[in-house]
Design a protein that fits this description.
The protein is an alpha+beta fold. The chain is built from 13 helices and 12 strands. The strands form 4 sheets. The protein has a 3-stranded antiparallel beta sheet with strand order 1-3-2. The protein has a 3-stranded antiparallel beta sheet with strand order 4-6-5. Strands 7-9-8 form a 3-stranded antiparallel beta sheet. Strand 11 and strand 12 form a beta hairpin. The radius of gyration is 24 Å and the shape is globular.
Length: about 375
Amino acid sequence: MEELKSLVDNYFILKDKDKELYYAIKDSAKTFKSFITEKLGYNLMIRNDFIKLEKLPGRAEAWMGIEEFKDKNEYVFFMLMLMFLEDKGKEEQFLLSHVVEYISANSVSGEIDWTEYRIRRQLVNVIKYGINLSLFNVDEQEEKDFAQNEETEALYENTGLSKYVVRIFPIDIMKCRDYKDLEDYNKDILDSERGFIRRNRVYRRLLLSPVVYNEGAEDEDYAYIKNFRARIEEDFRNYFNWSLQVHRNGALVVPSENENIKNGFPSTAGISDVVLHVNKRLYEAVKNGELKREANDVIMMTEENFRALLMSVKDIKGQGWSKEYRECSEDKLYSEVIAFMESFSMIEKKDKLYIYPLIAKLIGDYFEDYLTDEEGKIKNE
């Protein structure tokens, strides 16, 4: 069970970094291999030096992506770096200047101005991400950061893992114009195979997404969840010790109590407290009639009204928040709360803010005396 969770949480399991976990997964893989291949439709790669579970989403969502990347340039640089490493052997060394030259020569967006700090900073982010993934190691590096000085040089050593980052696609991706083409490549498959594709998609969505919403009578994924609820719950209980909760407008798997989920919610991060309080305020506003739910349990608010609600929550609860959110500007607080809630499928920003039913399940508050000491006096925070 824990071995499978480790595969879900990590991109690579490297033998030289965690030999115990590597062998634990290798020895126990047969106990969950059928779930991976039949229910999730995933490929489990076990090599002499690493193990990787090739994870694919059931559906591409706006919050998905590389958390460390903030600009599309970084994705372009990353793909060009993978192309650069394609011709490098394992343990082959290369210089930072070689990477810069390759990216400059192969960029389709025109000449890259490496004298611009922002551009250099983006490449530094990509390099750091590559190091964190163990795609290459740093052998030698100048004290001055490349982001500060484009003349800075550094020496790296290829690990060979870069060849396993991009998966093999079942179609010619040169014919794809957007991500929907990748999602819909199997839309013309035989009816006999359609059930397997749908099952894989549903299990993937439940595993990787915070919630799967009911999109109406024609939503075949949600119909599958309702029809095979008992079997799905049994699988997630057996392999993860997670429960399945199915409601009229949404379904989600819930980890066991006190389980520490990577990038989960709620967490110890300061923004987690803020959102729990905001969710509770929204929930109360619906209960007392201040806010109206639509037929699908979605709440619509203007950005102005949401800002006002957020600042009222800060006035009441903010004294207990982390210093970052107690003292930040209204704009920063608003933008970070919106971004965080979007990443957990709680909210969607369109012409208005669309607030989704998941917020009602994720509410929180402090104890009534959280700002008082043992003698009932107000704490000085």
